[in-house]
Amino acid sequence: MRGRRPPRHPALSSSEPASPELEPVTRDLAHFAGLTAGEGRPRERTLDASSPALPWSRRGLVRGAAALAGAAAASSLARSALAAPPSATDDDLEPDARALFGPSAGPELQIDLPQLQYGGDWNPRPGAMRELGQELRLRTRLAPMHEPTTVSLNEDELFATPFLYVAGRGGLPSLAASTQAGAGASEDALRRFVDLGGMIVFDDADGGTDRGFRNDLAALVARVLPGSELTPIAAEHVLYRSFYIIDFPAGRTRAEDELLGVQDEGRIKLLYIPNDLGGALARGDDGLHRWPCTPGGNVQREWAMRLGVNILLYATCTDYKSDRAHVETLLHSRRWQ
After folding, report:
1. In this predicted model, what pLDDT tens digit does every residue of 7-23 receive, in sequence order?
2. With 60 as the cut, is the pLDDT of residue 270 above it?
3. Is residue 325 part of a domain?
4. Is 182 left (phi over 0), alpha (psi -120 to 50) or beta?
């Protein structure tokens, strides 16, 4: 049985000029309908008894209607944009509103990961802080400088950031060589730095094979902070959950299972890392890590990375999570996977 022919449709009739944005669409409809376009708009035609029928295909009708609807929507949006009131500028805001809702100006805030240069073996793991800065950019919202600076104990350099990294191997010589002011002034600068909220991280590159660096650090603590000594950082301390939840302080080695430090009412002023954190982070010129992590390999290296991230988050945010339950703790308590 032959299918029914599509119904015949009357021709389009228009007595007013088409708007510029509708001219291409009208021209297409005229083509689909079999009309002749002239002077930018379809020629007027009326349907009477003597006019021949103008068959429209279904495909042509659908395409034409869709194009016309799209052009009409675009025209409506254009008129709305022209009629929209101008946006308020910063000068139009009241002073209080400007403080709350005004545009924020200024460059992106960057932090530095300075390393102390002194008279001994001050850089046993070159590039360790640069690598940690790259990991911080990838894993957090911090924006460390691409090239961490090297500082001495001059106050102008020392107090530019609340974090200071001190690495060493075989011992920690007198810091007098790091400044022209002498050992006494150097130690006074360290004391003011930690009393004003700074945090100094001492990283032992020996990784547990030599106690010289640790012993010299203990003597330095006794001079800089009389009455204080290095004590273990409790596993419940916020340092172990400032970003990641960490169970042990991994580094290039796992010689010890505790970090040591000097605390003031829970705030860490000085932190001692016995397992050579820098040795787990540093890379060579070929982009590969310079030293293997023993005994845990790359898994241990990842935990060392996480420890470094936690330390920097703690140094910049202090104890902001000390009174909050970590999200993983909440999920575990509800037995959510």
Report:
1. 444 444 444 444 444 45
2. yes
3. yes
4. left
Within a domain: 102: no
pLDDT surpasses 90 at 227: yes
Q: Select, from the ranges 4-8, 33-37, 151-155, 329-333, the one with the highest average predicted confidence (pLDDT).
A: 151-155
User: How many other CB atoms are there within 10 angstroms of residue 295's CB atom?
Assistant: 8
**Residue 186 belongs to some domain of the structure:** yes
Nearest-angstrom CA–CA distance, 229 and 55: 97
CATH code of 152's domain:
3.40.50.12140
pLDDT at 142 over 50: yes
DSSP string, 121-136: S--SSTTHHHHHHHHH
Question: Are the C-beta atoms of residues 271 and 115 closer than 8 Å to each other?
Answer: no
Q: How far apart are CA 204 and CA 125, in angstroms?
A: 10
Based on the domain organization, do 16 and 132 belong to the same domain?
Answer: no
Residue with tokens 């991280």: 201
Tell whether 64 and 119 lie within a shared domain.
Answer: no
In SS3 terms, 49-81 reads as CCCCCECCCHHHHHHHHHHHHHHHHHHHHHHHH
**What region, left, alpha or beta, does residue 37 occupy, with left being phi > 0 and alpha being psi -120 to 50 degrees?**
beta
Per-position DSSP letters for 137-197, written without gaps between them: HHHSS--B-SS--EE-S-HHHHTTSSEEEEEESS----GGGG-TT-HHHHHHHHHHHHHTT
Asked if residue 315 and residue 192 are part of one domain, the reply reads yes
Rounded to the nearest 10°, the torsion over CA 310, 190, 150, 198 is 30
The number of residues making up the chain comes to: 337
d(CA 61, CA 8): 12
SS3 of residue 316 by DSSP: helix
Domains contained in the chain, number: 2
Comparing CA positions, the residue from 234, 241, 235, 172 lying closest to residue 200 is: 172
Asked whether residue 86 is domain-assigned, the answer is no
| 25 sits in which H/E element | helix 23-33
Across the chain, what does the average pLDDT equal? Answer: 74
The range of the structural domain enclosing residue 293 comes to 115-333
Q: What is the pTM of this model?
A: 0.64
